[in-house]
Predict the structure of Dephospho-CoA kinase.
Amino acid sequence: MNKRIIGLTGGIATGKSTVANYLASAYNLPILDADIYARDAVSVGSPILSAIAQRYGSEILLPDGNLNRQKLGEIIFHRPEERHWVESLIHPYVGDRFLQEIAESSAPTIVLVIPLLFEANMTNLVTEIWVVYCSESQQMQRLIQRNHLSEEQAQARILSQMSIQEKRTFADYVLDNSYSVELLLKHVDEALKANSSK
Ligand SMILES: CC(C)(COP(=O)(O)OP(=O)(O)OC[C@H]1O[C@@H](n2cnc3c(N)ncnc32)[C@H](O)[C@@H]1O)[C@@H](O)C(=O)NCCC(=O)NCCS
Ligand SMILES: Nc1ncnc2c1ncn2[C@@H]1O[C@H](COP(=O)(O)OP(=O)(O)OP(=O)(O)O)[C@@H](O)[C@H]1O
């Protein structure tokens, strides 16, 4: 039987983790997360972290040798050419990790959480696409509140991604998170019951 591989995406802070946590706890589905692999890619001693430190100087590292994520964020969310350079190192690593984990899994349904599913051309990894959607003003408000960012910092992150309006046009399922979490999770139940495939 072919695996069902759900690509869960959306804009930053639209609700992907809320959906993924529910799929794990209520349905016991395995969750693979691009943000976690992207963190692994820059672990201490990794070739990618060395390349980053060579380009931006050792000030991009914390005293313990870990990446100063806030500093790199300030660079890449304001300078698209630097973002593309960092992505060209990290995205192939993330793609390879997904392929490896999918191949090793015997689960019939797997969930891939990929914030940059479209931007990083990873749609070929999945058999269906779910987009978690909320309005841009809600997205902004939730991001500022959760990450304690200024409006300008939040805006820079949102503008580094394809707009949520555009993302929703590529979805097999749009999970509307404009209202309560309870309602969002009802949409998740429905999407999981339906068996759409590309
Ligand atoms: C710049 C970094 C160090 C900031 O780290 P920080 O801990 O503040 O954020 P975190 O990694 O948890 O990401 C939070 C969210 O930011 C957004 N985001 C991250 N990278 C990018 C990017 N290159 N372009 C647009 N949005 C991005 C995503 O929605 C992600 O879910 C980090 O995001 C990073 O290394 N980004 C480059 C790698 C990448 O593209 N990762 C995305 C997953 S493939
Ligand atoms: N329906 C909702 N109403 C109010 N707040 C919500 C709702 N859904 C999620 N949130 C809150 O919005 C924030 C973003 O949600 P979540 O972390 O699930 O998004 P995400 O898409 O995984 O974010 P990221 O892209 O940064 O990983 C969280 O603080 C969460 O508690």
